[in-house]
Specification:
13 helices, six-stranded mixed beta sheet
Length: about 400
């Protein structure tokens, strides 16, 4: 490795229930770097990746390894919400290095007590849920629901954001159920779910989502599902058999839609398929997130001729004001260095070849961190957790 190589450290969850997500995140990084022909301002780009396990300690340990042993110039990552909170705090101890999010969806990674040198050009898990409650209540007629989610920051935000919007409409959340990350057996959880409801809002991801969906299907229960943003992401939609048919018509929301007609999105899909023909049928939210954040970093570096001097002052200043066209629309940062972007209401549909995809139903443009509520007022709600906000009365 040459002394003048630009070394980018990447944190991705490559073991555990989110491993498939991390693998697709790495694909997104490589797609972005390939657009720059693996070079910025005459400096060759070297990617050095370290695997985390979706836990905060792992993210901090691997960040240390990337910076102190591998001597990377900056870090892209992490993937999971609690990892993101840990990296936020870690970044404060390394102000001379830029940290650019991978796809971690914890809102407080940037909203509360943010690090000045941490940037997220992708929106967060609370933003991703914007509009889903309205669609579930007014279009699907789901007036009474239960929720099921993993018990950590990202699902707390998904359930919290949905609850605020759903209760305001008059919806009733009868019960909230929480499970640890990596849960394998959902039989007791499914048994404990109330029956006098119109739908179940499920905010699980990766292997957790697949395990629940397969076990739920096996029970024969017919209560419709509302899916969180990664519950039926492309890393999950590859399931086969009767479950595949069962998922058709399920509604969800998030920062991407598989059949988004925007030419920029379609070009991104074709680039992904061309480079990774044996991967997913369409790039996942994780490939998109790591791609967008990596591209943002490279665009900033390109504009300053890769000048990382003076404790990366130019680099970090350029990241703060950067705007560009991403596959899902124009991206810019708010004052907390978090993206404002478009959200999509989707419905699971099936192609003629039997593969599942998310069909675009509605686009909600320019969603900010507090979905339109003044920030001071929004902060009074408090941090989302398993008890806040409380279920609709």
């Amino acid at each position: 490795m040459a002394d003048d190589d630009l070394k980018i450290g990447v944190l991705a969850t490559l073991v555990g229930p989110y491993a498939a997500m991390g693998e697709d995140g790495i694909r997104g990084v490589n797609l972005a770097v390939a657009e720059f022909a693996w070079s910025v301002a005459g400096r060759n780009i070297k990617i050095i990746k370290e695997s985390t396990n979706a836990l905060p300690d792992s993210a901090e340990l691997m960040a240390d390894l990337l910076l102190d042993q591998h001597k990377v110039d900056f870090i892209i990552g992490p993937l999971s919400g609690n990892e993101g909170l840990a990296i936020r705090d870690y970044a404060k101890t390394r102000p001379d290095k830029a940290f650019v999010n991978g796809i971690a969806g914890a809102q407080d990674m940037t909203l509360r007590d943010p690090a000045e040198n941490l940037f997220s050009f992708t929106t967060n898990g609370v933003q991703w849920i914007t509009g889903l409650a309205d669609y579930a209540y007014n279009n699907m007629g789901y007036k009474r629901i239960a929720t099921l989610a993993e018990d950590y920051s990202y699902p707390h935000g998904q359930i919290g954001g949905f609850t605020i919007q759903y209760c305001k409409l008059g919806g009733k959340i009868i019960q909230k159920l929480w499970v640890p990350l990596g849960t394998v057996d959902y039989s007791t959880v499914i048994k404990d779910m109330p029956t006098d409801i119109d739908a179940i809002f499920v905010a699980l991801g990766g292997a957790d989502a697949v395990n629940f969906l397969q076990q739920y299907e096996a029970t024969g229960r017919k209560t419709p599902l509302i899916a969180g943003s990664i519950t039926i992401d492309q890393t999950v939609l590859g399931v086969k058999g009767t479950l595949s048919d069962r998922l058709v018509g399920t509604i969800t929301s998030g920062p991407i839609s598989d059949d988004n007609p925007d030419p920029v999105w379609q070009a991104f899909v074709q680039a992904y398929r061309g480079k990774y023909p044996r991967a997913l049928s369409s790039p996942s939210l994780f490939a998109w997130g790591y791609y967008v954040n990596t591209k943002a970093a490279l665009l900033a570096l390109q504009s300053i001729r890769a000048d990382l001097s003076d404790k990366q002052a130019k680099f970090q200043a350029t990241l703060r004001k950067l705007e560009f066209d991403a596959p899902t629309g124009r991206v810019k940062l708010d004052h907390n260095r978090n993206a404002i972007g478009n959200m999509f209401i989707n419905e699971v549909a099936k192609h003629s070849d039997g593969t599942l995809y998310t069909r675009l139903v509605k686009t909600i443009p320019h969603v900010d961190q507090t979905f339109g509520i003044p920030e001071a007022e929004y902060l009074k709600i408090g941090m989302f957790n398993r008890g806040n906000p409380s279920p609709c009365p």
